[in-house]
Design a protein that fits this description.
Elements: H1 15-35, H2 45-58, E1 62-63, E2 76-79, E3 82-84, E4 99-108, E5 111-120, H3 126-144, H4 152-165, E6 169-170, E7 176-178, E8 185-189, E9 206-209, E10 212-214, E11 220-222, E12 229-231, E13 237-239, E14 242-246, E15 251-253
Antiparallel strand pairs: 1-4, 2-4, 3-12, 4-5, 6-10, 7-8, 9-14, 10-13, 11-12, 14-15
This protein binds 2-amino-4-trifluoromethylsulfanyl-butyric acid and cobalt (II) ion (2 copies).
Length: 257
Amino acid sequence: MQTTENPEIITLLSGRELEKMRRAGRLAAQLLQHLKPLVKPGVTTLALDNEAERWTQAHGAKSAPLGYKGFPKSICTSVNEVVCHGIPNAKQILKEGDIINIDVTVILDGYHGDTSEMFFVGEPSPLAKKLVEVTEECRRRGIAAVKPGARIGDIGAAIQQYAESQGFSVVRDFVGHGISHIFHTAPEIPHYGKAGTGKRLRPGMVFTIEPMLNEGTYEVEVLADKWTAVTKDAKLSAQCEHTIAVTERGVEILTAP
Ligand code: MF3
Ligand code: CO
Ligand code: CO
């Protein structure tokens, strides 16, 4: 998601707010774990959406995507060449060999937890498996670059360097984002770029790291539904996301499973 507010102003969260972010993040991570066993050949992406909405309400939370800028469903389900923001659909039946990103964001006590993972439907191809593993390693390396005094560009540089060393490309059109009582706010966190550039990280900053890696070109296209982003060359794409906080000591993953 691109952020829409003043990109100069990065809010630092108080201890009380951080505690709410921890609770929201934990719930979002639990929702993904709850959905994981449902990902099987024959299931529709709408069935995943329905269960996510039911579970979220049952846990006293709200689905942030539902109605957000007109998004029609509760989660994003992005299959194979879909880069992000796939819309759950009754006609979309998962089949053996598909890869799917499920991206959930819950609002608990006014604060957001935003996380996504890749899941395999049956057995993936060796290439799909590698793309997913490299994407997960990119998220790890991006998170490892976070500490007070480091710069935003260090995160993208770490991700891009590893992704490209493995023969994949990094999507430019969607970035990580600040998050708190607002779903998408400053700062923007590109998943590519130059080390030593960009704003310095400070304790209390909270944002997402959500790299999207493509098998082929990094270019994407948005379909006529105004949401679904697909690779321009129709090759595979993968993504995974955590919400993290910069702490005095380094980094805390708020959406750890
Ligand atoms: N969860 C997505 C993100 O990581 C945003 C989805 S917005 C929606 O930023 F409207 F598409 F749901
Ligand atoms: Co996000
Ligand atoms: Co997300």
